[in-house]
Amino acid sequence: xxxxxxxxxxxxxxxxxxxxxxxxxxxxxxxxxxxxxxxxxxxxxxxxxxxxxxxxxxxxxxxxxxxxxxxxxxxxxxxxxxxxxxxxxxxxxxxxxxxxxxxxxxxxxx
Length: 110
Prior knowledge:
Layout: H1 18-28, H2 34-41, H3 45-58, E1 61-65, H4 68-73, E2 80-84, H5 86-105
Antiparallel strand pairs: 1-2
C-alpha cells in the first residue's frame, strides 16, 4: 500500500499563504460570504472557495448554510456564511507578524 499523502491541513505549523492571509483578514473584518471575500481581496472563486474549505478543515473558519427560506424570499440561492474562529484569529495574527517581519527585512516598510 502506498504511503498516505499528507494533506496540508495535517500540519499544525503550516505557514499560511498570502492568499490564505487575505481570506482570513477579509473574514476578520466582517466579510461573511465567498463572494464578499472575492470582491474585497480580488481573488478568484477558484482560489477563495478551496481556501475557505482548507481553513475550515484546520479549524480556522466555521460555516453554516443560510436559511433557505430567507434566501428564497430574496430571490437567490442560500449562501454559506463563514466566520473566522478564535484559532483562526490567532493564526492570522501570527501570519501578519511574519509578513511584517519579511517586509521590514526587505525594506518594504518605513
